[in-house]
Amino acid sequence: MRVGILGGGQLGRMLALAGYPLGITCEVLDPAPDACAGQVAPHRCAPFDDLHALAAFADGKRCITYEFENVPPQAAEWLAMRLPVRPTPRALAIFQDRLTEREFLRSLGIPVPAFAPIEPSEPERALQQVGLPAIIKTRRFGYDGKGQWRIDTEEQYLRIVRQQSQPLLMEAFVAFETELSIIGVRSLQGEVACYPLIENIHGGGILRYSFAPARVDTSRLQPVAERFIATLFDVLDYVGVLTIELFLVGGRLLVNEVAPRVHNSGHWTIEGAETSQFENHLRAILGWPLGSTTPRGYCLMANLIGELPDPQSVLTIPNAHLHLYGKQPHAGRKLGHITLRHDTPEERMQGFEQLQAVVPLQG
Amino acid sequence: MRVGILGGGQLGRMLALAGYPLGITCEVLDPAPDACAGQVAPHRCAPFDDLHALAAFADGKRCITYEFENVPPQAAEWLAMRLPVRPTPRALAIFQDRLTEREFLRSLGIPVPAFAPIEPSEPERALQQVGLPAIIKTRRFGYDGKGQWRIDTEEQYLRIVRQQSQPLLMEAFVAFETELSIIGVRSLQGEVACYPLIENIHGGGILRYSFAPARVDTSRLQPVAERFIATLFDVLDYVGVLTIELFLVGGRLLVNEVAPRVHNSGHWTIEGAETSQFENHLRAILGWPLGSTTPRGYCLMANLIGELPDPQSVLTIPNAHLHLYGKQPHAGRKLGHITLRHDTPEERMQGFEQLQAVVPLQG
Q1: Which of A61, A204, B151, B152 could pair with A4 as two cysteines, CB 3.0-4.6 Å apart?
Q2: Closest Cα to residue B68, out of B237, B260, B339?
């Protein structure tokens, strides 16, 4: 059973590793010769718009999926004429453009922060619509805090807008209490399962830590977040894993971003849930029954960013599970993660302290 | 970080898959071109006694280990002059010969069933020493019930002995109440950890099901089994995972076999223990700290032998985890396993019933 993955980063790598026990061999397509999934799975090194490579990639595959949202939708659509592409290429087209994404969410009645497109000829209009403080974001290719600027004054706003040549979006700055995310999965038959809400801590725009389940009380929030997921699943006839990043503000959830894929904030599911997000994504896109998303204990996931700690120092921490991606260290690059799995929230907080000695919060 | 594994079967495959998240790439050496570990890890296809291949295999490796005990000890010893081989090649030499194994265990005061070597010129002596009923076993290359004959009469005994040209051993037939196994691991620094006693059900000489922890009360047996492990670890200055198969007879433990490696009865540790036997073996042989061997809930592991059920029917069973080895179906061949992980012994027994509909006991 062969599955093709568009993109060969760590998400593709972990999908491939989840596939082998199920008898699934994943092949990744990625233009980077050193794409880290290529260390554990067959790797076709070619640009996403190389139709000859796409045709060869499709050959012998049961279906195609993607592991990052900046895959050209044209590539996914071209493949979808030949074999199933799951999730639908439409999700790529919608969620890789922050403006399209927000307009789509608003049209579905899913609450988002106030936003407006910035018209270069008339930048004041967005400013008036959204107000200050705000965030300017590029419409495309933003990730890990890249392509975002916090704006407190009109002067700052106009300077950034004049500097940038690419399409921009203005969004109200949200003084959130907590950042959360929810990961859901829908099978080909329409079965839906969600993992519990995850609490995320960012630093410098990059996810640093995830607590799963969240430390804050989410009993009233979980059904709300699951309704957002269900709405997106229904309207897109979605198959596979989908992630929603959320702000908690005044007891209310606002959607920050949607990722039509497995997500960094779900890495804890490898040890901390009955079935990992990676396995469930593969089961979903192959038309197989989903696995239980029930959490097993209390997890903390920490990203390893820019540099790697000594593996031995990590593995002395009780219940620490190390995941390295085989990438060359580079400032700001996600090189791996650690998951601590404990039976109680108290042990998890103790583990958090032990971990901070090894992985500094701003490391 | 590169590790070499002598042998490329499913145990090598699962070691390789456990290695990737830790930044370890395992390469397997196996003379079979279709060795199933080769689907997930680099595979050097060569006989174990090909010194040129062994030298190339050793190149760039941090250490060498083995995944089955019928590797020629000479190959392991030749490698051990060049780089660390863990566990010690001495363990191979001892445990691949059932006579040497039993003599070694007896010399350490570890209880074994009555046994005697069969001298072809004087077969009656073993018969007198051991008595009937008994089992005749080949001294070497027995596995999964192969090379074993149950003997009830002197006539049967003499017929088997005359038919066989290879060295034989006679062993008293043990009317055991339960078959158990224990898996322990010792680090390079001498740290020891054991998994809980596992209860095993065989059919046709092949392991069919493992219950972990065991269904029977093992509170008095666990320390006894751990002492056997500790004795072997000490006397062999052992590093890595070691497995002891045990008979429970009249409340007493007798050792049936020792395997100087990860073991089929430990596959449940992938989902059912904080750290799997595969990860702990790699951590041990690399001189890293061990991970917790604490069980998470109640597991049942079922081997998939000879033929494969439909993956979808397996995955409809709650908390079923499917592991396929990528091998061609063949009568009596281990093709994969299923682990059920539950929070209570009652749910596990319910799962056992659900599973039997998919995997018949004598399937």
Answers
A1: A61
A2: B260
| Model-level ipTM above the cut of 0.85 | yes
Compute the distance between CA of residue B193 and CA of residue A295 in angstroms, rounded to an integer.
26
Q: Is residue B270 within 8 Å of B278, Cβ to Cβ?
A: yes
| Set of chain A residues whose Cβ sits within 8 Å of the Cβ of B319 | 274, 291-292
pLDDT in tens, B224-261: 999 999 999 999 999 999 999 999 999 999 999 999 99
What are the percentages of helix, strand and coil residues in chain A, rounded to 5? 30, 30, 40
Distance CA A185, CA A9 (A): 21
The residue whose two tokens read 């988002």 is A112
Contact by Cβ (8 Å): B30, B91: no
| B326·A23 Cβ contact <8 A | yes
Contacts of B31 (CB under 8 A, 6+ apart): B45, B46, B47, B48
The span from the CA of A101 to the CA of A92, in Å, is 10
Q: What is the pLDDT of residue B360?
A: 67
Amino acid identity, position B93? A
Distance of CA B27 to the CA centre of its chain: 20
d(C-alpha B62, C-alpha B258), whole Å: 26
Alpha-carbon distance of B288 to B24, in angstroms, equals 12
Q: Is the overall model pTM greater than 0.80, yes or no? A: yes
In A, residues 29-58, which contact B (CB 8 Å cutoff)?
39-40
Q: Which residue has the tokens 């740290």?
A: B191
How far CA B249 is from CA of A236, B5, B220, in Å, comes to 61, 36, 14
The pair phi, psi for residue B237, each rounded to 5°, is 45, 50
- What's the rounded Cα separation, in Å, for the pair B97 and B297? 36
Place of tokens 């010194």: B51
Beta-strand runs (E) in chain B: 2-6, 25-29, 43-44, 63-66, 115-118, 134-138, 148-151, 168-172, 178-186, 192-194, 198-203, 206-212, 240-249, 252-259, 298-305, 320-324, 334-342
Residue B224: left if φ>0, alpha if ψ -120 to 50, beta else—which one?
alpha
Among candidates A183, A188, A187, which has minimal Cα distance to A198? A183
